[in-house]
Amino acid sequence: MIIDSHMHINRKVLEDEEKYINAINNNPDIEKVINAGLDMETSNETLNIANSNAKFFSSVGIHPLYIDMVPLKTIDSLYALASNPKVVAIGEIGLDNTKSNLDEQKEYLIRQIIIANDMHLPVIIHANNTNKLVREIFARDAKPKYGCVFHCFQPDLEVLKYLIDNNFYISFAGRITYKTAKKSLEVAKTVPDDLFLVETDSPYIAPEPLKGKINETANIKYIIAKLAEVRQCSYEEVERITNENAKRLFRKMK
To answer: Cα-flanking dihedrals φ and ψ of residue 7, to 5°?
Structure first.
């Protein structure tokens, strides 16, 4: 059975969220999923879904592209959400260079790492062309104490070495199945067995052969198959390794 370590089911991104919840609940190949929040509203929603569906767990946080919707002075309300047994991480948090407010994004990232450390939780990092900037924040301002994963990791062998040296994780999503994924394939060959995860980032980044369509957790099989091919092992071995890694990182996920 498979663990999808990062996906999004909420009313902001899906019109018919019940359809996708039911698809996961009724799929015998899916063991667990982590439904990641984007802002305070969706973080609350992911927790409500997790409380009502056994396979679902929640990650709560303010995505860098959504910080305009959440005043920094209210961010401490994440403490109350994070105390729930089904909240396994703080995320999705990080930096995104498609917006010019990087200084403000850094404030939110630092504050949320501190919350994660206070709550003994790992963080889920979004780093869009900002791997090195996030690493600088870890070194200078706030560093995760209870684990970290760079989700949809953008290939960077220098930063990958830093992550490995610090026992931080990286996660592979649908892009690894694309013909343009040469650098990601190099990363997939390099990362140690105990430091990688799989995810769909559903409903985004559908893998080949479904590129351009709404992505679903069931499509994680294409990502696992590609990793098995690249790492020259069986599908079942990738499934086993990534499940063990997910349970080790997200310790509250039972």
So the answer is: -155, 175
Retrieve residue 150's tokens: 């760079």
Q: Which residues pair with 24 in a beta bridge?
A: none
In this structure, is the dihedral angle defined by the CA atoms of residues 30, 24, 252 and 88, taken in order, positive or negative?
positive
Residue 254, pLDDT above cutoff 90: no
The H or E element spanning position 89 is strand 87-96
Sheet with strand 169-172: strands edge to edge: 2-7, 30-36, 56-60, 87-96, 123-128, 148-150, 169-172, 196-198
DSSP 153: P
CA distance 15 to 163: 36
Give me the residue label for tokens 């198959």.
225
Residue 44 pLDDT level (bands cut at 50, 70, 90): very high
Return the domain boundaries, the chain. Answer: 2-249
Q: Residue 236: what residue type?
A: E
Q: Do 216 and 19 contact (CB within 8 A), yes or no?
A: no
CB burial of residue 73 (10 Å; 0-12, 13-18, 19+):
exposed
CA dihedral of 37, 42, 44, 50, whole degrees rounded to 10: -60
Copy the structure tokens of residue 212. 């351009």
Strand, coil or helix: 24: helix
* Inter-helix orientation angle 131-140/157-165, to 10°: 30
- Tell me: the pLDDT tens digits for 1-22? 999 999 999 999 998 999 999 9
Domain 2-249, CATH among 3.20.20.140, 3.40.50.720, 2.40.50.100, 3.90.45.10: 3.20.20.140
**pLDDT over 70 percentage in the chain:** 100
